[in-house]
Structure formats: C-alpha cells, structure tokens
Amino acid sequence: MAARFSYAAPTRREQLLSLLADHGPGARVLAGGTDLLGDVRSGLARPAMVVDVKRVDGYADLAWSAEEGLVIGPAVTINDVLSSSTVQEAYPLLVACAKDLASHQIRNRATVIGNVANASPCADMSPALLCLGATVVVSSLDATREIPVTEFFTGAKRTVLAPGELIERIVVPPETANARGSYRKLKRIKGHDLGIVGVAAMAKDGALRLGISSCAATPLLVEGLSARDPADDVVAAAHAVISPISDVRCSKEYRTHMVGVYVRRALREVA
C-alpha cells in the first residue's frame, strides 16, 4: 500500500522535540523502523510526519556507570546490546532476551526502545526489563518524566506516551546488575518467530522475579518471590497473574501449561 508522509531527520534534541510537538498525534518516531514501516505498508499506521531519531547526538549511546546503571539511548540496536561486553557481564538476562529477538538482520536495525515503545504483548525485551526494574525516561518539549516499566504499558500496543513525547532513554539500575537470569520462549517453528509464550526469570540476593509475555494484554511482572520458594508455589504465583487467550497461534490452555513448564526450567537455571 502506497503511503505519503513528510520525513525529517533532526540532528539536535531541541529540533526533534519541536517537530514532535508541532505535529502531535500525526508524528511517528523512526529508529529501527522494523515495526513502523511494516505498519505503514499494511495501512495500520498513517503518519503525517515521520521523525528519524538516529542522527541526534548521543541517542546511539549505550553507557554504564556504577552510580546510574545501564543507560540505553533511542538508537541503540539489539545487536549493540549483544555485542557489549559490559551488558554481557552485568545483565545476562538482557542478553538472553535479545538473542531470541528475530534474526541477526532484524536485530541490526531493531532498537531496544522501539521494542518497548511498540508495546506488543509478545515483545522480547520487556520481560527482562520488568525483571531488572528498569525505568523509562520520557521527554517532550515541555517536560521530562521517569516511568517504571511496570507502569508504562496500558494495553496491547498502548502505552502512557502522550502526543509529542518519546522515550529518550531506558535506565536499568545498578542494583540488579550481576543477577542470574534465564529466558525461555515458545515459538511455532524452529528459528525466528513471534513468541507464543515467553518467561524470563531473575534471581539475586535470594529474591526472584518473573517476566511473562504473550499471556495477557501487556507483558507481566511477578515479584515478591524467593529463590527458595517451592517450584509449585512459584508456578502458582505465575498462573495467578496471567490471562492468556486462544488465537491462531495457540490455545489459552497450552499457554497456561507452558508457563508452568518454563517457570520450572527457569528456576533450575537460576538456582
């Protein structure tokens, strides 16, 4: 489907935010474009203005400090995360989820922030970021606000982002660095596919968290668990929060069953 829209690639942050403010709901942010361009071609998205963020100074930065943690900019790709020795060492769960996102070619374009902003219930990066206690820093021309990832999603493909806002960075706190992690993803086929069920687990200092995708309208966090809890109790806690549906890819009963299977496997891997 042919689509017409204006395109801008600002190099300054102020120029970018001004464009988003001027065009409001008609503006869409382009980083990797792996979701946006498909939506434009299919007619699901009809932007009047596409604003490319890749040229803005500092937006491709992936930085670590013991004080702030890991800071991920809007143009940081999935492959940037995978190739970072710092991320590999400090946040193995983030790496595990990144490895399962599509193919190498897609990961070379797709961005971490784009994967979160798209707000798909089956997003690969969201379970890890939920477990790791990440914060989304959202900016507009008038203000900047910090939002826990747990409060960012409001439904399938819906978030708290308002017109004129973009995610300027994601911050993963230092408190969850060096935690043990595991990610299991069920797909229809071997290789690269959307997740039917995704379960991430993180254990540190005796605490256990689970991130679950494809089992509700948003990715889910299960917290308040202990790494010493019996597996049956952890599975029950996961089953208590999910609300899977049956669709063309899977039945809700099978999703529920596989959550239990993957939780038990994850527990063994982070023990």
Shape: globular
Number of DSSP E strands: 14
Describe the strand arrangement of the main beta sheet, using strand numbers.
4-5-10-6-7
The biggest beta sheet reads: 5 strands, antiparallel
* Count of separate structural domains: 3
Low-pLDDT stretches:
none
Per DSSP, the total helix count is: 10
Give the overall average pLDDT: 94
- Judged by helices, strands and strand pairing, the structural class is alpha+beta
Describe the structure.
Helix 2 links the parallel strand 2 and strand 3. The chain has a 5-stranded antiparallel beta sheet with strand order 4-5-10-6-7. The radius of gyration is 18 Å and the shape is globular. The protein has 10 helices and 14 strands. 31% of the residues lie in helices and 26% in strands. With 271 residues, it is α+β, with helices and mostly antiparallel strands. The protein folds into 3 domains: 47 residues, Uridine Diphospho-n-acetylenolpyruvylglucosamine Reductase, domain 2 (2-Layer Sandwich), CATH 3.30.43.10; 114 residues, Uridine Diphospho-n-acetylenolpyruvylglucosamine Reductase, domain 3; 92 residues, 2-Layer Sandwich (Enolase-like, domain 1), CATH 3.30.390. Keywords: FAD, Flavoprotein, Oxidoreductase. InterPro entries: CO_DH_flav_C (IPR005107), CO_DH_flav_C_dom_sf (IPR036683), Diverse_Substr_Oxidored (IPR051312), FAD-bd_PCMH (IPR016166), FAD-bd_PCMH-like_sf (IPR036318), FAD-bd_PCMH_sub1 (IPR016167), FAD-bd_PCMH_sub2 (IPR016169), Mopterin_DH_FAD-bd (IPR002346). This is Xanthine dehydrogenase family protein subunit M.
